[in-house]
Amino acid sequence: MNSPTGGPPQGVPTLTEVVDWHDSAAPPSTPSELGDEAAIADPALMAAPAAPAELPLASLPTEAELTEQVLMQVQRQLDLMIEYRMREALAPLLARATDGLVREARNELASTLRDVVTRAVAQELTRHRNR
């Protein structure tokens, strides 16, 4: 089945070959044409209808379409990379800023609380002296 050099089996085109189905005999499409081994190996071939002689070629994208597709893919990758890098760079900065804000808020709250308690104690002492 394999060729003596260890390459593909005989009759199987390689990547460097171009096969023109129109010039040569049509490829086997039914199980009887493929042989019993192929029919047994692939039961789907038993029920598969014969392929049409000519398949319509898919239209190739234009240069502008390809450019747009590549640009969209690159933009998507850049967006993800920039977001990741920004998060990575900003996380320590934001953590330090948050710690600083919390410290300042605690200091302000403690100062305000001292002032409120001092005023309340002074008012209470004044009220007790006037009795």
List the helices and strands and how they pair.
Layout lengths: L30 H4 L1 H6 L2 H4 L15 H67 L2
Structure, described:
Helix content is about 60%, strand content about 0%. The chain has helices at about 30-35, 35-40, 45, 65-130. The relative contact order is 0.04.
Described by strand count, sense and barrel closure, the largest sheet is: none
Query: Element order, helices and strands?
Result: HHHH
Distance between the termini: 118 Å
Helix content: 55-70%
**Estimated radius of gyration:** 40 Å
What form results from the Cα inertia axes? rod-shaped
Assign the structural class, choosing from mainly alpha, mainly beta, alpha/beta, alpha+beta, or little secondary structure.
mainly alpha
How many individual β-strands? 0
Low-pLDDT segments, ≥5 res: none
Quickly count the helices. Answer: 4
Mean pLDDT: 77
Strand content: under 5%
Can you describe this structure in just a few lines?
This protein is mostly helical and 131 residues long. Helix content is 62%, strand content 0%.
Write a concise keyword list for the protein shown above:
single chain; 131 residues; mainly alpha
